Amino acid sequence: MNKEIVLEAIKLRKTYSNGELKVEALKNIDLTIYKGEMLAIMGASGSGKSTLLNLIGALDAPSDGTIKIKNRIISNYHKEPYATQYRSEYIGFIFQDYNLLKDLTVEENLALPLILMNKDSKTIKEEVGKYIDLVGLGGKEKVRPYKLSGGQQQRVAIARALITNPPLLLADEPTGNLDYQTSEEILNIIKDLQEALDQSIVIVTHDPQVATFADRVLFIHNGKIVNEYVKKAKAGDIDKILHMLKNSMRC
């Protein structure tokens, strides 16, 4: 694995307040993400894994801490208009619910991020065609999302997330709405794109099967990283991941 650092989170904290009640969702998280790796973040509901993803993606503001992209500190990255610029330049998102624009066709959904970046029409056409082919949706260019299966919609979402060539792709339970076979297909597509594009990917999941596709798995419990599993073999070891997850939740 290439050891070039794409993103560093340094002493990230997040505290939610409701009157006098304060809840520490994240407690001084240090995290390094490397170029070309797939990192899975696992933990029980409420452990802080989605909060961490939201802070990295500037969807929420940290209470304290620093984000560095390619060794550069990103100041005010969680405040507008900087947050929008940060996400546009550095982050691609895949969500459980796809978040496609229902009134746009597949190719229009993919073109939109490039239009917002003021790319010329020739580049847009070439890139849209390229990513439609990469996710295996040739022939679906003119179809609207509601006529696609869940797996096909997620393929569109993956292509849209990657079409701007972001340094980091964030995926929040990307197979949560899919059956087992379709989940496997989507995970294989993500893995193939990771390797073909040397793409850095962070996946938040509760599913150990998803985690077996990752190069590294972090386990979060009560707002802290409590364990880490680095895959040594090419094939995933679901039993070891399950064992480490259970042990992490006992911490």
From TrEMBL:
<dbReference type="GO" id="GO:0098796">
    <property type="term" value="C:membrane protein complex"/>
</dbReference>
<dbReference type="InterPro" id="IPR017911">
    <property type="entry name" value="MacB-like_ATP-bd"/>
</dbReference>
<dbReference type="GO" id="GO:0022857">
    <property type="term" value="F:transmembrane transporter activity"/>
</dbReference>
<dbReference type="InterPro" id="IPR017871">
    <property type="entry name" value="ABC_transporter-like_CS"/>
</dbReference>
<dbReference type="GO" id="GO:0005524">
    <property type="term" value="F:ATP binding"/>
</dbReference>
<keyword id="KW-0547">Nucleotide-binding</keyword>
<dbReference type="InterPro" id="IPR003439">
    <property type="entry name" value="ABC_transporter-like_ATP-bd"/>
</dbReference>
<dbReference type="Pfam" id="PF00005">
    <property type="entry name" value="ABC_tran"/>
</dbReference>
<dbReference type="InterPro" id="IPR027417">
    <property type="entry name" value="P-loop_NTPase"/>
</dbReference>
<keyword id="KW-0813">Transport</keyword>
<dbReference type="GO" id="GO:0005886">
    <property type="term" value="C:plasma membrane"/>
</dbReference>
<protein>
    <submittedName>
        <fullName>Putative ABC transport system ATP-binding protein</fullName>
    </submittedName>
</protein>
<dbReference type="InterPro" id="IPR015854">
    <property type="entry name" value="ABC_transpr_LolD-like"/>
</dbReference>
<dbReference type="InterPro" id="IPR003593">
    <property type="entry name" value="AAA+_ATPase"/>
</dbReference>
<dbReference type="GO" id="GO:0016887">
    <property type="term" value="F:ATP hydrolysis activity"/>
</dbReference>
<keyword id="KW-0067">ATP-binding</keyword>
<feature type="domain" description="ABC transporter">
    <location>
        <begin position="7"/>
        <end position="247"/>
    </location>
</feature>
